[in-house]
Amino acid sequence: MKPSCWWLVFVYVTCLHPSLILAIKRIIVNYSSQNLSSVPPGLEPSTEDLDLSLNHIQTLSGKDFSTTPRLHFLNLSWNVLEKIDMDTFNSTPALEILDLSHNRLQNLSDQPYLLKVGNLQFLDLSSNMFSVMALGKEFSILKHLQWLGLSAISIGNEDFTYIANLTLKTLFINTDKLQMYEERSLMGAHAEKAIIALSNKDLDIAIADDVFASFKEVEFTKVDSEMKVLQQIRQRGTVRTVSLEISKVETTWEVLTGCVNTILSSAIQQLSFSELTMTKMVNGRPVSSSRVLESFSTRRATVTQFIFNQTELYDFFISMPARNVSLTQTPIIFMTCPQTVSKIEVLDLSDCALTENIFSVGPDTECSTLTNLEKLVLRGNNLKHLGPLTSRIHLMSSLKYVDLSQNTLTYSEEQGKCVWPRKVAHVDLSSNGFDQSIFKCLPDSIRILNLRNNRVTTVPADVGVLEDLSILDLMDNRLLDLPTCQAFPNLQKLLVRTNSIHSPLPGTLETCPHLKDLDLSRNPFICTCALREFTALINNRATQTPGVTLGHWPEGYRCSYPESRSNSMLKDFYLPEISCNGWILAVTILMPTITLVVAISLLCHRLDVPWYLKMMWKWTRAKHHAITSQKKAEDMEGLRFHAFVSYSQKNTDWVKAQFLPKLEGDCGLRICHHERDFIPGKTIVQNILRCIEQSRRCVFVLSSHFVQSEWCHYELYFANHQRVMRGMDSILLILLEPLPLYLIPSKYYQLKAMMSRRTYLEWPQEGAKQKLFWANLRAALQANLPIPSEREEEILN
């Protein structure tokens, strides 16, 4: 058999009766309502709490719980138990809560299994088949017992002898099947509180008589409609009871008001009703006693009559002479103002159906008789507008605490100015519909403000200064940033858990010099550079700054974005300064770059890389030009030379030693040289023109001597004229030495124009560079010229 709902996590269990003070918060193994006839075998050794209620288990053997040494809670109620072996609980030394109610056990004097449960704190044996309530000797060892539930057919004077030395917290007696009660029998039991489930028989009177004489706290359930048991208070000379609770009763308005007046004339200080049903709302008696109760409360009251005088009902409760008055979970829609100055100091009207017209006297008159009221609780009503509500309570001059939570309250300036009592220090406005406008409707004297679970998105900058505010709760709102303390200079505790704060500004905390407690947990932090400084600040405050407590640190502070950091804790979030500081990042990137550029520039300068690049560019252009401008074979007719060289006589050595050998010998080019190729007998001009016409290119070796030569000038002139006639770029300049333009005579204006708008080759002095120079020159001069025949040579010559 498997348990249904095997693990019920964090379940609160209250055994038998709601007044039980022993509640557990544990993991329970639940075998309830499984139609079991015996305890299931193989229970886990880790089992601490076990529910076997609502089954058909008849007997318990010594081996049933042998595997559960950690068993703490055991519920066997509503079975058919008749026998429990004395060794049943040998292996359960930790058992503290045992519920055996509603079974068929028959002899209270013979329960030997109790000898093995010395740590028991709660024991319920009520609603069994005991004939007498004579407790056996085994009850005397239950030194830790706090709650005991019993029932029997008869109760006698000696029944509680074996627990006479015990003082229980609660004694529960179910008299449903009681047939005989011996007077003064309950005086043998000692407990702080007695809970008596009455039987609506004459025996109830005798039991109530003894209960009032023996116990300080008394609770009666299932009281008859005439409330006869309460009449014993008036007849007894001595009443030990100071706290009386009546639950599950249906009565008339006349009987209820009469019984309340009876109790007011007794020594009882605390009176409460729960699950009260009122019928026949007529002939009620007003409060006639001036004795002041410590507290008067009514919970879950209803009226069955549809039409009745509601004002009489409200007046009765609000006129109650008690310091603490509570009327809760009751569908009242109004509460009147006391006709005389009230003694009420605490008034709880929570979970009703009240509106902001509460206590209203007239259009221009507010309630002025609740001047002793210090605490007002209107939680869970139908309140909607805060402005008018403050007018209802502003004459309550002693009011310090106001709870208006769990309503649908809002505030806007259209509602008018808020007028609070001057002593209000604690206001609970949680679980309403307030936005940031609420900060314009707060009392100046406020010290504690609870605005949890509202719609606040920001704290306005124009809020009036609240000097006394020390605690501000803004949890579960819609805040986008951390509020500053400029309006709250003495704030000590700030709670902004579960909002929409992504990247709070670090300077905000600097405005809160007195802050001691801060809770920023469960916000969707965006872990980027914007959060870096704030994270460092709260890290410092959480670990180093004395006197500052960061709530739920570090588990409650996690990144929501980016995805790579999602759900990681804020204490582990780190971004280096360089990632977030633009100047540092720029310097870090630029410095190596600049250094590299400078180094490369120096290296290039050292190795003369620009010159090489320049020459490589020229060579590339020359090759490209040679390919794109290559002429057809018929266009090459008449050309004998690749180039005609023009130079000054003073540069003859370079031409003969470098130029001609490199181009003619190594490159196989045909160069027209005047000393070799000029035809004797012809004029110089004729030879120059002939050589230019028969050469594909004209190479001019420029130097300071070149611009001083007249013949060089003529050659340049004729070559330029031939370039224009041919329509092709046939001139190539070689700069043998630096030649500034200002050194060139004005008559060489054509040379100046050429040097300013076209590239030229520079002769390098370093031997390593000269190979590239010759390669560029060869690329510029290379062409497939036709080889002239001997006959053509003769004709041309």
Automatic annotation (TrEMBL):
The keyword Magnesium does not apply. Residues 639-781 form the TIR domain. The chain crosses the membrane at residues 583-604. It holds the Pfam family TIR. GO terms for cellular component: plasma membrane. It is a single-pass type I membrane protein. One of its GO terms (biological process) is inflammatory response. Disulfide bonds join 337-367, 418-441. InterPro entries: Cys-rich_flank_reg_C (IPR000483), Leu-rich_rpt (IPR001611), Leu-rich_rpt_typical-subtyp (IPR003591), LRR_dom_sf (IPR032675), TIR_dom (IPR000157), Toll-like_receptor (IPR017241), Toll_tir_struct_dom_sf (IPR035897). Keywords: Disulfide bond, Glycoprotein, Immunity, Inflammatory response, Innate immunity, Leucine-rich repeat, Membrane, NAD, Receptor, Repeat, Signal, Transmembrane, Transmembrane helix. Gene3D superfamilies: Ribonuclease Inhibitor, Toll/interleukin-1 receptor homology (TIR) domain. The keyword Glycoprotein applies. GO terms for molecular function: transmembrane signaling receptor activity. It is found in: Membrane. Belongs to the Toll-like receptor family. This is Toll-like receptor 6. It comes from Anabarilius grahami. The lineage of its organism: Eukaryota, Metazoa, Chordata, Craniata, Vertebrata.
